[in-house]
Amino acid sequence: MEGLPFLPGNTFRDPTQTRYHVSHSLEYKNGYAIRRRPVVTVGGMPLPFNNLSERELEALANFKPTLTYGQVKQAPPEDFIPAQVAWDKKVLRFYAWFKQTVHESPAEHYRVRHVHILYYLEDDSISVLEPWVDNSGMTQGTLIRRQRVPKNDIGDHWCWKEINNGTNITIYGKIFHIYDCDKFTMDWLESQGIEVNPMEDCPVDPYQVDRKNREPKKTMQTPSDFDKLRQFLEMDRKVLRFYCVWDDRDVMFGQLRKFIVHYYLSDDTMEVREVRVINDGYDPFPCLIQRHRIPKDRYNIEPSFPLGAMEITDEEVKEYFSPIDFKIGKTLLIYNRRFLIYDVDNFTKAFYWKNFGMTDFTPVDVEVKKCDPPVMEIPPYNMHGSIEDSMQNLRKVVPEPPRKDYIKMLDQQGKILRYEAMLDSTRPGDRCRRFIISYRLSDDTINIYEPPIRNSGVVGGKFLEPTRVSKPNSPLDKPEYYGPQDFYIGAVVEIFKHRFVITNADYYVLKYLEKHCHQMSACTMQSLRDKFCGYEETDNRQLPVKGGPIKVKRSERLEDLPCLVEEVKSQLKKLAITSNNRKDRIFLGFDFGRNGCINRENLQDICLRHHLPIDNDIIDCLARQIGQDPDRITLEELREFLEDKP
Asked: Which of 114, 246, 327, 356 is the most exposed place for a label (fewest CB within 10 A)?
């Protein structure tokens, strides 16, 4: 049976065997453990073994195979391993601390700073690291970079055999006290035969302890079981609308303004929008407060919170506005602004009735009774500028120029009605003064010119610039201005406190009024007809107009030359050439050689410029009347001719 292979079918179990326990091999005698060699197997079967005698055992001990079989071949020596490879990544870690004195501080006198001293076995280098401490205000991290640290001035360096728990090591003037090491360091030192000192207690930093005691303890809050996603899905597009007013009349320039507060139920956010009113004087700025969660009291936060450097977050805000805080007639303080709720819409009423059981939604009357607008009183005319310009300053803050009738200006361009007038005054010196009143039909302005009279004591020239003149005692809001119908022979015209009597007019005035006789009064037309009754239309020449061209038809009669010369002579005197300076400028303008005289060709150019006849016989006759030599007319001769001096 013992020689059969151990295969299925070749093994047999003894049916008589009933013991299957394993016999024990350890015993205790007098408190000591004694090992006993087992002699039976499982089931109590005897265990076969060789029983050697003492002699056989001694023979086996003295048996040396080398004497019988010869010397055994030696194994090759092991490869050399350098230190940087054998001790690579093997670092001893020691925990130490040192004291740092703090000067001029009432809160602390010294600091206890904890460091880690790392000893690298591969090159005996040392580095000192300081763990990071939150809000310490000190530079931490690597205090001493990895290097071989000198121990004394001789040049010796620190070795791992000299570092142990409870010892002090000096590194660059700082004394580090080692109080503990990690498990790898302890096991390695013991394997090298160094007894590691027991661990010591590490002192604590008194300032850190005091600061930790003063810090508020962190409170843990159980998360709410409220589902924001469900709120968004159920309350999306559901908005509560409250009609409010902001009463700011207690400050300077404050008003009662209306706003609408929207409360979004989907995320509990709010926004405040302005109710736009036409001509309210405010710029269009509809959104006063943008949509976001608004706290009830923005300033109810911890006093230690740095408001100047950080924004307020949800962690600092203690309470936000909710739908229960809104009610008709209640005043809300939103960012230091008082909003009074005076009404809500129908959806908001239904929401509060369903969720809060409210039934009273009586609106609050916030309408302010408006006073009657003040009546604008027109101040008296200050005689500066025109009445239209003064009225523009009353109608608008930024005055604009009065509108002009451009069609009338284009139609009546260049048409001027000229009248001769005298001053109605009680002063004897004003009786000899004569004035030329020019009425411009393009813009209805009046220009007054006074021809200068020598040795009269009155400076002539421009008396009134082109200005629209209103009639006396006419209202300022609707002034009545002088027109062509108001100027007739013998009419008294009051212009800015000066009374003028019309004594004469141009023949063109009669022609113009006859074309527009339907706009003129019969008295005006008759006075002018009576004035020009001696003039016949069939005459060869027209009535001379001051400063205007003359149109004379030449005839075959020889006596028309003196008449034409006299007409040209009178026209030259009527060209407003009243001052010596102007005469000198005209003379010098044609004295091209600067020899102090002009010739008949220059005199012909002067007449051509002023639209006067330039026939040769007329120019020759006129030149002979001006000077003795027609080809050399001097300035004095021209002056005497224009001034009618003998």
From this structure: 356
